[in-house]
Amino acid sequence: MTVTIKESDLIESIADAVQFISYYHPADFIRHLASAYEREQSPAAKDAMAQILTNSRMCAEGHRPICQDTGIVNIFLKIGMDVRLESGQDLQEICDEGVRRGYLNADNPLRASVLQDPLFTRRNTRDNTPCIVSVELVQGNTIDVQVAAKGGGSENKATMAMLNPSDSIVDWVLKTVPLMGAGWCPPGMLGIGVGGTAEKAVLMAKQSLMEDLDMADLLARGPSNPTEELRVELYEKVNALGIGAQGLGGLTTVLDVKIKSFPTHAASKPVAMIPNCAATRHVHFTLDGSGPAELERPSLSDWPDVHWAPDYKASRPVNLDTLTPEEVASWKPGETLLLSGKMLTGRDAAHKRIQDMLAKGEQLPVDFTNRVIYYVGPVDPVGDEVMGPAGPTTSTRMDKFTETMLGETGLIAMIGKAERGPVAIESIRKHKSAYLMAVGGAAYLVAKAIQKAKVVAFEDLGMEAIYEFDVVDMPVTVAVDATGSSVHQTGPQEWSMRIADISMKKA
Predict the structure, then answer these.
(1) What CATH number is given to the structural domain containing 368?
(2) Fewest CB within a 10 Å sphere: which of 170, 296, 464, 507?
């Protein structure tokens, strides 16, 4: 029987879904993260997970984004061949309108991150459209819809390879995951697609991330087929790498591993891997012609009783307004700091403009002398908020600018997420600077430390403008100290050895 589904129902459902996933983690993700938190033995990783869990509950209660990077929207549609879609627009236009309404919602405006031209102007579309639409025609008279928001930090770690038929998937994954660093904000999950062709493998990897996390159940009952056996093997071996939450070293790097496969050419073995970060966001619904989807809200009882708060006894207070190079040089790797005072913000576009201005001998609009810069593109505030969710962005994108910033502007420290590369670390060591790490996936929690905020330069860059934040007790970890020692190197090394020792004792 043919069923008519209205264009307006699909648009409204997508708009609602975009809002829904911005502040609700899937319940299965929370359960697996809560279990990992209970098991974790690394103090740094456990603290990071506590911040992520606390942030998640705050967002569920306050209906504000889990992460400042509210992602690029992926929409997967399975359209029944007995469906008549009542519309005067293309399917892409319908989906874009749903995304547009969701992102421009006045009660919870989401950060616009999509650029119209990836090659030249890179102009922001201001409404996060267009979205990425994937369509399958299937038997039936319904439209099955999955909506996901994928942050740039995890999407940038997507990897694809054409292996030889005899090559080991396990070996490739274990070689590739350490190269991903921590910019994808672990703990999360890995989606793996194997077979088909290059583009099919990548699509399957992305689609696998839409599946519910069930690793806890799988470990409890044991694998029942070769694919489940491979999932368990990869889960255990990836976690044995000791990368841990935020790359700080620990027992849990992945909460689950998903695998989808498809027949392939005899000479080929396409494989793709895409991680989902600590801001895993997706929802599934079905339209049957009876109206827009009704999304079931999770219960707050799904969240564990974890409420992160600053540890004043174990943390060093830092006054940013009186900070000196000598004080920066005294910070130790892994030390927790609570920052108070005025900091500047800036990320890719601002750094590029600063570099160009310095090359031309132009005066900068901001004095960076003895200042700290925070790599962030915040969400706009609503109501009485000073600033919307404002978590850190991946710091390695600023590595190419580090020598310029430290050598020519007077900057003395930087804040971001994940590791720094060798070029940046050498510059930090050379200038006796420091790199501090905030927790990716705790954006709303971090924003609560911001007491005042104003744009001080490059307003035309939107969320990439330079702000001045006045913060109180903003939590950070010393990730690279003035000697160039990096906790993203020492932490995983230490915990991979500890995990190996634990495994030997169990055996």
Answers:
(1) 3.20.130.10
(2) 507
